[in-house]
Amino acid sequence: MSRPLILVTNDDGVTASGIRNLVEAVESFGDVVIVAPDKAQSGMGHAVTIGFPLRIQEVTGLFGSHKAWQTSGTPVDCVKLAVDKILHRKPDLLVSGINHGSNASINVIYSGTMSAAVEGAIEGIPSIGFSLCDYSPYADFSLAKEVVKEVVGAWFKKPQHELLLNVNIPKIERAEYRGLKVCRQAHSKWSENFDERKDPNGRPYFWMKGEFIVMDQSEDTDDAALKQGFATVVPVQFDMTAHHKKAAIADMLQL
Amino acid sequence: MSRPLILVTNDDGVTASGIRNLVEAVESFGDVVIVAPDKAQSGMGHAVTIGFPLRIQEVTGLFGSHKAWQTSGTPVDCVKLAVDKILHRKPDLLVSGINHGSNASINVIYSGTMSAAVEGAIEGIPSIGFSLCDYSPYADFSLAKEVVKEVVGAWFKKPQHELLLNVNIPKIERAEYRGLKVCRQAHSKWSENFDERKDPNGRPYFWMKGEFIVMDQSEDTDDAALKQGFATVVPVQFDMTAHHKKAAIADMLQL
Predict the structure, then answer these.
(1) How many CB atoms lie within 10 A of CB B30?
(2) What is the pTM of this model?
(3) A93 lies in a domain?
(4) ipTM of this predicted structure
């Protein structure tokens, strides 16, 4: 049997430390191919590029002997380009990250890292996004790499065809780590307070800055488990229907 | 009691015909303020602008006596800027659209129109996205406007605080219209087949082109109901947890 094909992508761009660490963590499981954005694409959500064409360029020197490409597109574009133009097949597994920063709770919706994984799952590829709760470009990925190996190893031992996971690793010392925990997404939001400045011509411009607010401290949420020292695993779906609200809406519409 | 404040946004940009039609459809229900992108932002998903500052410019002449602004940001940025810098309060209702093109089934994930509405709901604003299944800039919005009035009118008669709806209107003659139907999101995907071309220097570039594939023809899906002449109403949630998968994942991870 041939070795499994693993597609690696991210949203911090092909030169980020997180994606090199992810490649090192998964390379023992199969043949690794990297297709990632040529620049940071944080916060791109599930954006796709419709109005402009895309570029693909092979990259050497970053990932040892592994084949790698950078594209001018979003993380979701990278997945689509990889399947259609680079791999010419679906990979056996897609891993995205390791993101520099948390994608727990509501961040799953804004995250380019997770949107790449969601796109993989929509296309029928088992997909996992990994994020370390440390925004530093110089973050220590050693615990995160252990978590990647544990989760990916578990999947290879017991493969599930429909797989979409959001894995977050806390920023803690190894000794404080309490293991994996399956959780649900915490109810939370970013409350924005734009910073208004003036350009050299006196015209205003606005920088987004946000305060993160968690409205739900339940034990079974990813936010709570991360604070307790767990790495969190949230199974994710892309059916956004609020099935439990259908009856109330039909009533409101007098149907 | 003061008139309700209605925030109107979209992803096709402030000059699109769809947003003018949406304003005309809702202006009898309250005070309308428009905050929309200064250019088309289709397919932007839930993207936010992190690495660049944003501009806001007042727009006159497009919406009669209603106050209107365009921003350099994404649809989600527009909602955030509107609340923090323009309205200085949460609006009573957010409506997004009317999109030029379907946002039924999996399109809800890629859609800037729906992402603006999702952002509104995350921030606690009752929010509805409207889309007409006609990509033409010269589309006939008369049936769509009737649907907007019916749905928005029903909400004002029986307000629900937690509201997030994805409303799609079929491209049909008035006589073929069968009314509103509450549905679930159809399981579907875009299958990409990039169009490769050469630039004047002989270097390749790639245009995304997709084929839309519906894997689920059940009667209760939005895709099926639109084909039968209904306008579809899908209640949407932003908890992406696949709650039903938690046990299987815990088993895979041997937890």
Answers:
(1) 17
(2) 0.95
(3) yes
(4) 0.93
